[in-house]
Amino acid sequence: MTGFILRRLAQTVVVIALLSFFCYFLMTLMPGDPIDEMIAANPTMTAEDAQRLRELHGLDRPVHERYWNWVTMIAGGDLGYSRTYRVPVSEILGRSLLNTSLLAGAALVLSLLVAVPLGVWAALRKGSRVDYFVNLFAFAGISVPSFWIAIVLILVFAVYIPIFPAGGTTSIDFGMTPGEALVDRARHLVLPVLSLSFLSIGTFVRYTRAAMIDAMSNDYIRTARAKGLSWDRVLIVHGFRNALIPLITIVTLSFSTLFSGAIITETVFAYDGVGRLVFLSIQRNDFNVAMVAFMISVSWVLLMNFAADLLYGVADPRITYS
Amino acid sequence: MSAATTALGDAARQRLLEARPMWRIVLGQFVEHRMAVAGVCVIAFFLGVALFAPVISAVTGLDPNRQNVLARYQPLMSWEEASPSERELRVQRFLESGDRTALADHVRRLGLAGADLPQDELLYQLVSSNEPAQLLDLLRHGPTPDSAAAREQLAGFERVVEDFRSFHLLGTDELGRDVFIRLVYGTQVSITVGLLVALISGLIGLVIGSVAGYYGGRLDALLMRFTDTLLSLPILVVLIVVSAVDLGKLLGGTPLAFITGHEHESVIKMIIILCAFSWMQAARLVRGSILSIKEQEFVLAARVLGARDRSIIATHVVPNVIAPLLVAVTLGIGNAILFEAALSFLGLGIQPPTPSWGNMLHNAQEMVQHAPMLAILPGLLILFTVISFNYIGDGVRDAIDPRGIRR
Asked: Which residues of chain B are within 8 Å of residue A294 when distances are taken between CB atoms?
């Protein structure tokens, strides 16, 4: 078990390291260079000044050297300085990371709460009208563009029936009590969470249904019924328990989809999270922020996958880590 | 002989005994999946729209790139008048597109404009001093010109004047362009990207999956570790970083440098990037099937007969993975369309003026309160297309599943 965890952890670290170099290399290929932008902002700067600045920031060095400098800087605990926000990267990052976790976590919980009962219901009434409509709903869920559902939600619940704010993370604070602030925060979360969960609900419903149909067609279900166990007990302990393993797989894989969805959702709702930070910082050539935000989001997803691998053992005692 | 069998007529018995080819069995299964059949119809319609986009444009006289700042954000089903400068521009284009002397002579004879004006001034004056409807009336109710050339030129000129008033079924966008024709061309772009990405990444997946599955061992472990890693990444985050790359900096000096500055640079770039990150599912699937196929007797038989690896993979293994690959490719089309739309929506994908469903939404987002239809329509088209491809994929999967085959 310990060996497995260590091996898996080492793999994850190697992947993260390789990705960071790959991403750093890509950043050098992006249009625009920080010094060029300084020249554009300050017309009195001469070519010599630009050259001096390039040398000062090490921008005239080859990529691998610059990458190594960046890694040593990060390792020393210095995440760099954001050019557009004019603050150290660490100051922006903490807040947006918290916001994204809140958004993604709430969306995951909501989609499981909706999808699992729906999937089980459809599986038990396989081939019926219920099954047909749940299926249609699930297909719509996996086929709808996330940004579009976000725009439609804004149109319906913020423009036509203005009950929720159309965007932002909080209202501007004019002496709100902590209770009011909490409600305000929650109100801003409703639409983004709805739009983000819509995507995963479709996937979860389909997999729950398939796994449940599979589990319920086993012989031990008939045996359990024959012994006179109650229907609920058969359903939960014998059926659902066995449908849980494929479900965990798909929940694991959905972390990456959830994060991808978070970028879109955060951008449309102007929600202050990591996904939006990656997007905006790349657009604004703020490479220090982009690098760190990218690495954090990728590492977060990879670590979640790792955690889910360990969860398998809990869900299915037959799995051993050797 | 039981009563049930004797009750069958000769023809029915013949049909039962007949050996049907595999594809007919599969087709029969597929047709039973009602939603998949509906999906095929929807896709056939969109494919038709995509193929005939230039024809639609020619018949309706609409141009996806024609802007009109005086008619921005027009509602559905609205008429729009071209501005005077736009009219002059179109007359100029008409004058430049061929010989117009016969037409000018005819107009002079009708006495509609000063007889001493040169040919181009004559037409400009005609257009600027008359309302389009009135002018058409004058042109049509005058005597028909004698020469065939003049008749033909007059008809062309009438068409130009008719176009001064244009009908916008779905309104106009933020630059006054017709939304309907942009959606038609957007269909062409989005479906092309979706199909090409799914096909190419299916091929990449086939190659990587068969190499990994057939040779096994260390190569397999390496390739599959790579595949799994890519699968576990938040793909959209990676795609955003990759698509922000300046192709000029990457391809400068290589044989692929022709892509930069190409008319469809952003479309080609999008296809390459999406292919690079969507072959993984296909590769896993192919590898999985090959692992089971390569243990079967016919592969052993081929090897005993002295067949080379290459020919075993190509003639014995690949035909057996076509079916699952087909499912992956069909589902891949929907995904590719969704990713293209998402990136274009963020402004990183297909660049205007080329319309795609995604970048139409990008522009619509800002004015969503005033012109909601601009945002709703492209999204609906994406939804219909992707859901159809997903249902088709589902239908194909059910149809080729040997467990599900009923006779």
From this structure: 237, 241
Distance CA B77, CA A152 (A): 22
pLDDT above 80: residue A69? yes
CA nearest neighbour of B284 among B334, B332, B224: B224
The three state secondary structure string of chain A is: CHHHHHHHHHHHHHHHHHHHHHHHHHHHCCCCCHHHHHHHHCCCCCHHHHHHHHHHCCCCCCHHHHHHHHHHHHHCCCCCECCCCCCEHHHHHHHHHHHHHHHHHHHHHHHHHHHHHHHHHHHHCCCCHHHHHHHHHHHHHHHCCHHHHHHHHHHHHHHHCCCCCCCCCCCCCCCCCHHHHHHHHHHHHHHHHHHHHHHHHHHHHHHHHHHHHHHHCCHHHHHHHHCCCCHHHHHHHHHHHHHHHHHHHHHHHHHHHHHHHHHHHHHHCCCCCHHHHHHHHHHCCCHHHHHHHHHHHHHHHHHHHHHHHHHHHHHCCCCCCC
Query: Between chains, do A283 and B361 touch, taking CB under 8 Å as contact?
Result: no
- Our CA-based measurement puts residue B34 at a distance from the nearest CA of chain A, in whole angstroms, of 11
Rg (CA), chain B: 30
Closest-CA residue in chain B for A256?
A: B234
Q: At what angle do helices B280-293 and B179-215 cross, to 10 degrees?
A: 40
* Interatomic CA distance for residues B50 and B392, integer angstroms: 19
- Lowest-confidence range among A242-251, A305-314, B47-56? A305-314
- Mean pLDDT over the full length of chain A: 85
What chain A residue is nearest to B361 in terms of C-alpha separation? A148
Q: What is the mean pLDDT of residues B37-47?
A: 95
Q: How far are the Cα atoms of B67, B206, B283, B286 from residue B279, in angstroms, in the given order?
A: 39, 9, 6, 11
Strand (E) or helix (H) holding B165? strand B165-168
CA atoms within 13 A on the CB side of B69: 1
Phi-psi label, residue B139: left if phi above 0, alpha if psi -120 to 50, beta otherwise: alpha
CB within 8 Å of B353: residues ≥ 6 apart: B64, B65
Name the token pair of A210. Answer: 């398939």
Instruction: State the Cα angle at A25 between A21 and A27, rounded to 5°.
Output: 120
pLDDT tens-digit series, residues B100-110: 777 777 777 77
Confidence of residue B234 (pLDDT cuts 50, 70, 90): confident
End-to-end Cα distance, chain A: 7
Range B181-185 average pLDDT: 91
Phi-psi region of A61 (alpha: psi -120 to 50; beta: other; left: phi over 0): beta
Which residue do the tokens 């497995």 mark?
A4
Q: pTM of the entire structure?
A: 0.84
Specify the 3-state DSSP secondary structure of B79.
Answer: strand
Other Cβ atoms within 10 Å of B5 Cβ, number? 9
| Helix, coil or strand: residue B172 | strand
Inter-chain contacts counted by CB atoms under 8 A, chains A and B: 133
B246: distance to nearest CA of chain A, Å?
A: 5
Q: Which pairing describes strands B165-168 and B78-81: parallel, antiparallel, or unpaired?
A: antiparallel
- Write phi, then psi, for A81 (nearest 5 degrees): -125, 135
Question: Which residues are B167's β-sheet partners?
Answer: B79
* Closest CB from B232, B245, B368 relative to A151: B368
Query: Largest Cα–Cα distance of chain A, in whole Å?
Result: 89
d(CA A222, CA A231): 11
Tokens coding B94: 């008409």
Residue B168, helix vs strand vs coil: strand
